[in-house]
Amino acid sequence: MRFFKKTMLCVPLLLMLIISLSVSAQKSTLSGKILDDNDSSPLPYVSVSILKDSKLVNGGITNDNGDFNIKNISYGKYTIKFSFVGYKDFIKDVEIKSSNVNVGTIRLQTSSENLQEVTIVGAKQMMEYKLDKRVVNVDQNLVSAGGDASDVLQDVPSVEVDDEGNISLRGASNVTLLIDGKPSTLYGNDVATVLNQIPASQIDKVEVITNPSAKYNPEGMSGIINITLKEKGNMGLNGNINLSSGSSLKEFQPKERLSASINWSNKKFSLSASGDFNYNQRGMKTDNLRFFNDNGSVSDIIRSQRNGGEKGFGGGFRIGGDWYINKYNTLTLSLNSHIHDTPDDYSTTTNSNLIKDIDERNNIDQSNGTSYGIFNNVGLSYQKDFKNNKEQQFYASFTWNWGKMNRKIQDDITYANNGEIFNGSLIQDYYRGDTSESNNYGAISDIHYVHPFGENSKLEVGYNLDYHGGSSTSRTAYDGILNNKESYDFERDEFIHAFYATYGFQIGKKFSAQLGLRQEIVKNDFKKTDFEHVSTPFNKDYNPLYPSIHISYQLNQMNSFQISYSRRIRRPDPWTIMPNIDRTNKEYLRFGNPDIDPEFTNAFELGWSLMLPKTTIFTSAYYRYVNNGITRFQFLWNEENAERYGFEWAWEAASNEDANSVTAQTFVNLAHSSNYGLEFIVDRDITDWWKANLSMNFFGSYQDGTGLGYSEISSFNFNAKLNTTITLPKNFTIQLSGRYNAPRKTIQGKDNARYDFDLAIRKSLWNKRATIALNFRDIFDTRGGFGYAYTDQYISFTKRHPYSQSVRISFSYNFGKTANMKRQKKPTQSSSQDYNSSSEDYDD
């Protein structure tokens, strides 16, 4: 009996021990979401530390959507610490007593603390990296302050902008440029002009998408660059004013810019307006030396020296409004208009024969021109979110654009008298005049629907219409007499209908994938081609398929991998196809190629990212195989070469009295080519006041020129960019950036190495409402280039020296409510490839 009583007394103790052991063995999952307290944007890579008795027992970081999910946490009481560079630490006590604990939404506030008299102000990182794209936050790029979009792109990893405004990505040209997700052609025909018209102060960020999915327009062999303009701002009334002034240092070439924006919003409506005006002078010197070969010996040497530039005005405005009908429906209307006026486009070219005293080979060509363009677009969009599922969305938009461009060039060509071009003994030979007018119009429509299937998969289907129409008229006269061979009328319509579907799914917490397919129906109608030598209209129709695959694996909170494939296209533009004869430069004869075909690329990419508390490492290996590669091609102009390369029609059309002495330039298709490379990017917070970003791209190329009588060319190249920012006392910041491009081979030559450096100093004023910055571009005056091109009949050496060394001072002032007010969400079409991305509700 006594034993029974003792046993009964032990039972409760035993049960308590069993329960205690059971509870202690149970594991829980801790989850939540981290937002920026200022604008409610998700914060990725926030460190989440789980502490017990001040000791770290578990932890992780947030993903791109600001979400975290930490497993295998024993039941008990803990202290959770949330920390991120530039933000105040947030500490929360949590008791875990169930299998899933959600701490809800945590809002982090930016910090402002003094460290050894150095003020550290919380701000976004300049670079953000995702496996499918990288993002540059422009506000953190000091060297572009007061400049334009081309200045911004100069410091984007793996992006290059040459002296003429041409963009390349990872060493390859043909990049698709988007403005707020829409083609840059809405703002103008010339990319360089478009970039000049966008003030850096109005750019929020730049997204670089190297291997887009089937959702995106497949145009752009090397990828997509999307320039995102600033949002409506905080609720209430706010805005900013920006002024800048500067000049080139070699010659006085002023560069002035004024831009401003104002925004007002409440919970029902938002209105915004922005405008800009700029005056810009720019110039360049080129020196070209051509050695002509005759049976192994030099038969002639011709030197062309050109000093030219332009003086132009530009400006525009952008107005828009959003109507937040309710929490789930938004209507947006926008109007954009931009103009540029170049009253003085000037150059002086001196051509001299260094061996033979041939009068027509010794001349001075003084060119003066004017141009004027205006481009407009109006857009309407509707977005519907769904109450029961944040991932479900319907979006429709329509944009109409129209514009025109007028250009006039007058060449006064003076020949030598008895070869004496430099002693003042000159005779006037003739005047050459060119006038051209082009009118452009088009429509872009996008309709898509996203439907989730549970939490781990979603389907998106859509339709895109891209229509371009236009006409171009050009007249060339010599001494007032019309030259029909170089004059033309040209009309074109292009319809691109595209249907696409993407399906994304996730298996577990680590593996996700997206499959996509796009079908295009392209109708390209050159309905009027009134050239003297080509009068029959011709079509370029094709119906290609574009598959895409993206696979991601999240090894842990800090390591991610992605492998992707997509098929892309480069469509020949009208100037590549149009068979006009251009003799603007007496030493060159240029014409399009109506037989050119589209270029197709199969792109493969493998990416890896490592996110550490103070360091981000991003690497990507890529390979692109190209069929029908479009390339510039030049050859000595004579009848034999014209027949050899299939341009008999051009020989019959052109004036051939100067055959065997000028260079013909056009476009041709290569059988195939390829590009491959390894990209390596490191972001490092060296100290709390010193940050650095280093990007390197090692890339090679292969071009098969055997079909054109040249050899197969393989080359390996390298370029690098460095950007470092130092925060000093008294709200001063210094930023230094540098670029290096290694030598590069082509099928007809080589370009030598180039490098340059920029420096900027900025000071914040008036409680950080204003900033003043001083920028030095191309400090050592090294941005020019040197290269050569060859055929079997001549070799040509060219040196280019732009007036890029310059200094600029800029001032920016923000007014209105700039903090502590929740920013209204900007309605946009979904563009992310995140397979489990979430969207944020509007306020009630």
Could you explain how this protein is built, in words?
It is a single chain. By secondary structure, this protein is mainly β. The longest helix is centred in the first third of the chain and has 24 residues. The N terminus and C terminus are likely disordered. A hairpin with a 2-residue loop joins strand 21 and strand 22. Helices cover 6% and strands 62% of the residues.
Number of strands: 49
* Residue-averaged pLDDT: 80
Question: Largest sheet, if any?
Answer: 22 strands, antiparallel, barrel
Gyration radius (Cα, Å) is 31 Å
Specify the structural class: mainly beta
Kindly, what is the distance between the CA atoms of the first and last residues, rounded to a whole number of angstroms? 71 Å
Helix content: under 10%
Quote the beta fraction.
Answer: over 45%
Inertia-based shape: globular
Number of helices: 6
Low-confidence stretches: 1-11, 13-24, 112-123, 418-428, 819-844
Features:
single chain; 844 residues; 6 helices; 6% helix; disordered C terminus
